[in-house]
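Chain A, query sequence.
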Amino acid sequence: MFKNYFKIAFRNLVRHKLFTGLNIFGLAIGMASSILIFLWVQDELSYDKFNVHANNIYRLTTRLSDINAAVVPIPMAVTMKAEIPVIKNATRLSTLHSIVTIGNTKYDEKNIFYADTNFLQMFSYPLLEGNKATVLSRADGVVLTAKTAAKYFGNTQNAMGKVLHIDNDIKGKDLVVTGVLKDIPHNSHLQFDLLLPISLYDKIINQTQAWGNFDVFTYFQLDDHFDATPAALKSLEQQINVVHDKFDVTKTKSVYFLQPLTAIHLDGQLMLDVEGQGNGQYVRVFSLVAIFILLIACINFMNLSTALSSQRAKEVGMRKAAGAMRSQLIMQFINESLFLSFISMVIGIVVAFMLLPLFNDLAAKTIVFDLFNVKLMAILIGTAVLVGLIAGSYPALYLSSFSAVKVLKGVKNLHGGKTFFRNGLVVMQFAISVILMVSTLVVYQQLQFIRHRDIGFNKDNLLYMQLPQVGDLQHNNQAIKASLSQYPDVADYTTVSHLPTYLTTGTTNVNWSGKDPQQQIIFPQIWVDENFVKTFGMHMLAGRFFSKEFKGDENNFVVNETALKIMKMNPATAVGQAVEHNGQTGQIIGVIKDFNFKPVQKSIEPLILKNAVSGNMNGNAGYMVIRTTGGNLEHTISELKKVSQQVYPDYPFSYGFINDDLTKLYKAEQQMGRLFNVFSVLSILVSCLGLFGLATFTTQKRIKEIGVRKVLGASEAGIVALLSKDFVKLVLLALVIAFPIAWLVMNKWLEGFAYRISISWWIFIFAGVIAILIAFLTVSYQSVKAAFANPVKSLRSE
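Chain A, predicted structure.
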């Protein structure tokens, strides 16, 4: 029986080549798109699940004032483990950017962690060399990844027992390689090249201020028997907060929360988090996009199949007259849709496999399509079956319901005027496509707004180099500045403690006259020299900036507009007011116009600028920021490298651009925009196939009516308008449905930005015009074909 079904299915598909091609093309595109999105979603959801204890590991996060951060005070790990029995294990991590010296070769390493001795026992990062229980116990030990070991020593075996030198925070230290890790999986939220013992970190911090030092990532492994229900986790968080308030001598007003390990990657909204975080909202959005594109492809199949109904009516009638049951006919049509669905899936897999490198570039991923993955193939086969059943269900029920008597009598209008369902499918298709189109335009507008928005300083032609904290800082800075002043391509330069692109430092120890004692506000801070405002192209609203002519400026402050609002002052009266900052009292000498030093998702915060006296960056490495003329950039960088090597001959030269750093802050939004562009175009393309199917169906049903109209003198233009207006009505209805939904969805997305566009009315007009134009062009082929057909051919059978 099934052999017969397949034989009939194959014959019908070959007989109707155009419809078969359109069906396969539409389903294949939908499936290929959905496969790529599924691989991306699967990759995003897989983060950290390779850890054996993943379900029992939680990261401790904090809310301090109005800031949510991924780091907590240093003593939290030890204290909580000692005080709360359900916490089976606790480990800490802290980041380090340092120079690593191997012989005469130096490496600028940014992915270094200080780690507790039990870190590798809690997390499942396999060791290739060394003992997991002891590799981080040695005070002068270091653990490398395989890639880093190969870079330093040629291979992993040669690395064991070798000595390397770490500079910077620990003021120079020889370390012995005690272990080599397998390269860190790409789906780990922690990405590092070296692990140093936490004991080295403990030596360089001020233990008396440990409770006020929010500097470490802290992870808890809960007891295996702990039932992690929402209520139980909330109760545990309350215990943690009670213990913190008991032991915290600084009485910092902070609240702590537990974040599941497997949720860290997609909860990328925390301050001071590791780089490379994802966005759970985008995962949900693109999951819906995949479902929508598949749904559109299924709708195509339904419309194109019903378009063939008039050609298959006699077949159904004859089968029924010969004794075929309706269930048998349904099975036959479902079998045809399954057959076609599997063909489309095979083609879709091939297309997805071929397009994966391009998709990886768009999504900034390294996704691998493993065709031998049993689970993945089972999901794809299940999807093909599901699509076949969904797409074939309506045509099967529709075609099998034909009355044998009516068909064999030659009655053509077998279902009267019941076209509501088919029209509804087309409306749904175009509504989804228009929603994606509007969303694409809004995302593009917001990205353009971010790119061209006045952020309070001139970001163009600004490059920077990091200044190592070694030797005579004042002499080093002066030597660099003296060299830079000789180059005509250098317009200005300044020294800063932190780059004002994504400032993550801050203090709550700021006091002024009239401050509420209960008020705890975080003030970000930057140490700058007198050229800061000029180099960055910023604007002073009141007072003056730091100057060498005023010797007392080392104790004074410059604040931004937002700081004055917090202090309930105004620019006219703020200058001269006393402020205490970290125990040091000085005066406000100037007010600088607000500028963005964090992504536009965040509102501008109160900022304090301190004068960097004699090269003092308050213990921070510091940066030299140079504004170039924008002319011979390569020559400027070459000259800057020479200067750096003269002043710091033992340190590798590295540089960056402020504009590039700002662009990286919106990497996720840019990726979302690119993916939306691609999938909105694909959804429109697939939707047009469905509209083509309905146009074909309608034209076939009205072919004799068109012949009569032409005989009676109707013009071709009039007939085209007659056939097209019904489809335009459907698209207009789709617009009415799509516009409010698109507005609600994108307005919700824009709420995530402190600085955002307003959704313009022209976006909807533009999307509507494009949708109507596409619909008209799609149906015009069939309309024009019918309008210019010889009426004799359509009427000769009457």
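The radius of gyration is 34 Å. Residues 414-418 have pLDDT under 50 and may be disordered.
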